[in-house]
Amino acid sequence: MALISYFFGKKHYKIPYETGKVAAYIISAWVIVYLSQQFYVENIWLKYSIYALILSTYIFVALKIEKKNYLTLKNQS
Fold this sequence. Notes:
Blueprint: H1 2-12, H2 19-38, H3 44-76
Helix pairs in contact: 2-3
């Protein structure tokens, strides 16, 4: 649905999305989910702690990457 909205929206109002970066975020999230599902942890507390750590790391890395872009855009305006 998001892809359909993107392609139809491109016809009416062109926004220079960084599609490569968005695709990289989506693919890396899929890979992380796939890899985390390959390991079986019986202890539920340990399992969810590992998932929380993986999610926190992913968010931290994404924020570090986007902070550089945010500061660049902020300095341009």
